[in-house]
UniProtKB/TrEMBL annotation:
The keyword rRNA processing does not apply. Keywords: Membrane, Transmembrane, Transmembrane helix. This is Solute carrier family 15 (Peptide/histidine transporter), member 3/4. InterPro entries: MFS_trans_sf (IPR036259), POT_fam (IPR000109). It holds the Pfam family PTR2. The chain crosses the membrane at residues 61-83, 89-112, 179-198, 205-229, 360-382, 402-423, 488-512, 532-550. It is found in: Membrane. SUPFAM superfamilies: MFS general substrate transporter. Gene3D superfamilies: MFS general substrate transporter like domains. It is a multi-pass membrane protein. One of its GO terms (cellular component) is membrane. It comes from Salvia splendens (Scarlet sage). One of its GO terms (molecular function) is transmembrane transporter activity. Belongs to the major facilitator superfamily. Proton-dependent oligopeptide transporter (POT/PTR) (TC 2.A.17) family.
Amino acid sequence: MAMIKKKDSTIKRKQGGLITMPFIFGNEVGEKLAVVGFNTNMISYLTGQLHLPMTKAANTLTNFGGTGALTPLLGAFIADAFAGRFWTIAIASLLLQIGMISLTVSAILPSLRPPPCKAGGSVRCEEADSGQLAFLYASLLLSALGSGGYRPCIVSFGADQFDESDPRQKVTTWKFFNWYYFCMGASILVANTVIIYIQENVGWGWGLGVPTFAMAVSVVAFVAGYPMYRKLDPAGSPFTRLLQVCVAAYWKRKLSFSSDTRALYENETLDAAISVGGKLVHTENMKFLDKAAVVTENDDPKAPDPWRLSSVHRVEELKTLIRMAPIWAAGIITITAAAQQNTFSLMQARSLDRRLGPKFVIPPASMSVLTQASMLATIVFYDRVFVPATRRLTGLDRGITFLARIGIGFGVSLLATLAAGFVEVRRKEAAAAHGLTDDGAAAIPMSVFWLAPQYCLHGAAETFTSIGHLEFFYDQAPESMRSTAPALFWLSISAGSYLSTLLITVVHRYSAGRDGSNWLPDDNLNKGRLEYVYWLITLLQFINLIYYIICAQMYTYKPLQVKELGDQEREREHGVELVENA
């Protein structure tokens, strides 16, 4: 028996680890080239190829971004409840592949686009008809569904390759998030340079065909790594368990609650599949939910009805998600601020002098290269300089907690939108000085690199905010919901995108004057008040930062009793408090 156990242990060690990273990161590169290569320059495609008005194009972009960020909830549910993360990623990648092929076809066939603009006394452009838009939206929906299955699972699947019960791999698990984001940023950098250059200078057929081919190669490579992966079995629908706790608590809402928490229902056998890494122990807040774990004379503890009786672990799963909600909500307004990079910041760039040397002209969408370069540089700085320096002060392995990391990102993002407003004032002054206020199509003799501060600050903010949120969701979410946890991150992106759509729509409607003036005019940004929009978002971010600081101070980390460690050991660097089982 000892020899058999030793052999099984050896086989287990061969799965997972660093050897799987090329396959996982390769799939990430393909997905980002496919999705970002189109999304970043999408407003140029909508306005230049489909001839949509600027505001309508901006709202279409944010609506699609919101929908694409909402679908990860479905993907996470499928992965955690039925299919597991590997098969969810594989099938979702195929859906994304089909969507990208469809988008490429729409860019190649003239019948799927309106005719070119006609020159004359004034340039006349025919807007895309309903059939052409329907084909585009169907392609985008397929891509969104594919991304929805892929995005929440790839991060957790990569982290799954490192066994947290092994002290040697535990630190590697948390460094993985930095590696993942660095790899993602590098692929986005390529998408924002090479792919966008092809779109602007060679054609949209090639500009979409190249990332479509890259996506196909990455899917094959990911599936080829199947024997090497460490694959965790799905533990059943997390949403069903959460609903069962709510229903059980409702049925027992009139019960008198005893102060003796030791009487609450525990069943380690029942919870074995959802508490492999450790058991959640009872906390004192939200006691109304504890009634779901009260055993009555109508309950059978040996064969409990989950709709009538829940274990403490399951009750605490719900409590943990509720405690995470305020931190999650704080990220929405930051996404709204960042969303302007692909809409109005891009339109600002289009109006400025983009020459780099005597012949090369920077595509407007490629300005986001500054965001990615700043993000990559900040990740290196954070990992090599910031963490070692702060570690000596705080004693934490990661230098600072993920809550502090998120807060720093919120502050940097606020500075980015504040700077964007001042740059817009300077841009309009330059337009007025050269008599171009009434000509929204003419290039203003002002360097496009005036926009560099806002792009670079957004990149630095993303290093702190986005990676901090990924760490927070993966660490604090119940173990059985680690696909659902990244889906919460994408859900905040969805909410931020929809909030951007609402904000732009409201501003466009209520800032309209009787003389035709508007903060966000459809055809000439030089006559607008875009700086007011940036400063409005800055104000919202300031209020949000105060709200976040209050929430972070009040946040209670999930109480986890880890099976492999002694009850007295505490891993504060992971933000986990180990509580003794009374």
